[in-house]
Amino acid sequence: MIPKCRTSAYGLSHHIKIPCFSSLTDAIISPFSNTNCNQYFETPPSSNFQIQNPSFEQAHNEIHNSYTNSETYENLISRYEGSTNSKNAEKLKLLIIKNGYCSDVVLSNTLINIYAKSNDMVSAQKVFDEMPDRNEVTWNCMMSGYNKQKMSNRACLLFRSMLCSGIMPSHYGFGAVLRACQDSGPDGLKFGMQIHGFIMKTWNSLDVVVCNVLMTMYGSCSLDSMVCARRVFDEIPMKNSISCNCIISVYSRTGDVLSAFEIFVAMQREDYGFKFFQPSEYTFGSLITATYSSVSGFGLSLLEQIFSRILKSGFFSDLYVGSALVSGFTRCALLDDAKKIFEQMRERNAVSVNGLMVGLVKHKRGEDASDVFRETRDLVGRNSDSFVVLLSACAEFVLSVEGRRKGGEVHGYVLRNDLINSKVAIPNGLVNMYAKCGFIDDACKVFKLMEVKDEVSWNSIITGLDQNGRFEEAMKSFCRMRTGFLPSKFALISTLSSCASFRCIQLGAQLHCEGIKLGLDLDVSVSNALLALYADSRYLVECRKLFALMPELDKISWNSMIGALADSESHVEAVECFLCMMRDGWDLNRVTFINLLAAVSSLAVLELNQQVHSLVLKCCVSDDDVVENALISCYGKCGRMDDCEKIFTKMSERRDEVSWNSMISGYIQNGHISKAMDLVSLMMQKGQSFDCFTSATVLSACASVAALGRGMEIHARGMKDFVTSDVVVGSALVDMYAKSGRVDYALRVFHLLPLKNKFSWNSMISGYARNGVGDKALELFMEMRRSGHKPDHVTFVGILSACSHAGFVEQGFKHFESMKNEYGLVPGMEHFSCMVDLLGRAGKLDMVEDFIKAMPVKPNALVWRTVLGACCRANGRRTDLGTKAAEKLLELEPQNAVNYVLLCNLHASGGRWEDVARARSMMKRAAVRKAAGSSWVTMKDGVHVFVAGDKSHPNIDEIYAKLRDLTREMKDAGYIPQTKFALYDLETETKEEILNHHSEKLAVAFVLLKTSGLPIRIMKNLRVCGDCHSAFQYISKIAGRQIVLRDSNRFHHFNDGNCSCGDYW
């Protein structure tokens, strides 16, 4: 006979009668408004127990009438009660149908539980839906099953339905739904707090089990809910060991090590309402977690103390505690101690091995982690997590190729043993491993073949694509992910990074909006990624707004903002932002100083630079290579090359390409060209490779001093280092050869460039102009237009200069007009100056005056200086215009010595020696000095510099003797000294002697002392005078040598008595 009442895991020994609630809110308020809650819970004596639900009673009667063997019923329950096999579930289902037990709640609960344990929630839900009657156990089984499947939302919905059906949950029901809230993370916090409010109105608020689950829920859902968790703990009337372990565990997860140890100490002093409590293995495990999760600086000290307590308490042999210790010591970077503990453990399992490997991986010791896996493969079993950790170790190999090889072996193993789909974490690990090793195509193949993808899968592939430069694919993957998953902060951060790299600001702005909708913008990491996006895209206004609205700032936020301001040339604001960061108490790191020094470097304020340098020393980052390179750049721009040399010397073997480049750039910027060339020689001796920046910088220095030989060496070295194909280096080569007088070499390099940009074209056009080949410059300009390159302001400076030196007045005006009419370019002051020079060289001084009056802008010193120079060459014509130009110049630049020199030349050309004396007197009163005219030549033994009337050269006697011989031969050939270029009121013989001792004549005489057939290359810092120009024509014919002279304006190529300028200069 079947008993009327049975106590079972899936049934109740009493009937619960509860009114129906329409909502959770009703359930929270209605039962306890004005009613005694006990009326809803009736527990009649077992001897007189009567089933009050008619349908329930009817079902039992039917079963009783149709089934006469109670032993079969008992056997079904005992046989299948603990089963977890889906096949057993099907057998039980058939037996229930066969024997007519379809309405039995207990057997239906058993069937649901078996389905839930075998992960078949679809069948469990079907049984649940077909049940005519359900009790609390029915609902609890379903919620537990959904929790097991990580379907937290379904579990929470079931709990709502349970309340609406009139079932009052016990502590098991509350535990199940709180576990669902816990698994939901931050999304489950709100509902969990509602459940807490409901619990507070029942006697379950005093139940220690429910309170323990509440604490765990708060700790898992939000790190900001610690206050709520602690309040629950404090209100438990009689705490047990699990209560203490729960709150310690919660504190450990949040990194609040002090509070965790406070509970640990207090619970052993009977401060919380229970007897003296001995810590368990779970207590020690949580405390160990707290030590390495701590953000404070004394986590290691606490770990060592807790280790001593564990040894004293005898828990060292416990597997759980030992595994926690291994993880703790590895995360604190005490890897040798972790290995010792691991080796001393009596018992090990996959968890302890994985803990050691995880620590090694975290400290970038992938090879060591792989060795641990190999050495322990015969000692402990493996689980799926073991292979996941091993794959992460492969991703951290020093040699990515070796890591990929090892990861490929793991990939083959999991395929052969059918483990690839046993857990989604394994293919996720493969995607991550291949991506980090740089084999992104393999990562994409694994991702494509995955049967099941979760949020981590998408995060891994998006991050991998971004880190491997596949920015467009990363953004497309993010869009595909959104069809099945809500974006996580990790996916959003990586996609924003791709948007920044791909300069896709529109998609980035859309992601910003989506982040706001999902609340992800409140995460500081997401906000930092947005800052980087707007900063890289030069959207400084958006950067400022975002930074001001961020609810939380970290060190990365400040560094990003300082860097954004520095890059956008808001240098003063960047310094002010840095000062705010310091006032807020943030620690300064290398990134802070690198971004700050970028701003300080542009300001070129020595005192500020020294203050920042002091902070660098104080914060102990002075040995960082990047910081030192930035300091070299700062001091170089302040003109303090001595300080640069000190830092550079201190770096010694830590120098990199940037260090050498910074020093070379500093020397060049401060006019120390010879030191720059010496440093280049040292760089080449040490075998330092040349990058594109080095080559371009050094070539620029060679071009500035026309160091053709050194420039050719750099060219050869660049070819060895495979940088000459770079468009910037190629353009610098064109510029160097053109400025060194080898326009033929420049043209050859220009034609060999695989890619040309406007800088390449401009360098070649300017090179033609500087070397007096105006017609070639104009032809190249037309070719540039045909190639589709649009000319810019620099292009037209070269074109107008070419027209000026070649005397193409009409073409010059035509191109000048085309700037605005055809290309929409507004002429600058340098273009007006070129036009004035064009007219002045052509002797059209009247047109010069008219042109200046018609200028839409007020002429500056450059234009007036060009006018004055043109008047000086006019042999006394239009001295009124020259005088006016001189007055304007002295008004604009009273401290510029060149202006006084030109004024003296103007008066001297007309023979007005009194005016010359007055001009020199004005120059003396202004306390300015004329730059000495100098010429220099580069020989095998170095650079030889000469000044007018020089007596300092070691071979000066031989030079003057050679110069006398040259003068005699020139006069025999018809040379007549042009004494008008000796701007002194002296006798003719004295003027001839002065002209004969000009620096360029001394230089050419020195070179002719050597026997050679090579061209003579002379550089001069001032414009060559007419007499020297004439003399060089004679010398080139007498010596039979080509002479290339570069003065401050252009090149003169003398060959067989003729000059490339055609005497039009």
TrEMBL record:
Gene3D superfamilies: Tetratricopeptide repeat domain (1.25.40.10)
Name the record gives this protein: DYW domain-containing protein
Entry keyword set: Repeat
KW DNA damage (keyword) present: no
Segments annotated as PPR repeats: 104-134, 135-169, 240-274, 318-352, 454-488, 554-588, 624-654, 656-690, 757-791
Coiled coil: none
InterPro entries: DYW_dom, E2_motif, E_motif, PPR_At4g14850-like_plant, PPR_rpt, TPR-like_helical_dom_sf
Span of domain DYW: 974-1065
GO biological-process terms attached to the record: RNA modification
Keyword Repeat: yes
GO molecular function, one term: zinc ion binding
Pfam families, alphabetized: DYW_deaminase, E_motif, Eplus_motif, PPR, PPR_2
Superkingdom in the source lineage: Eukaryota
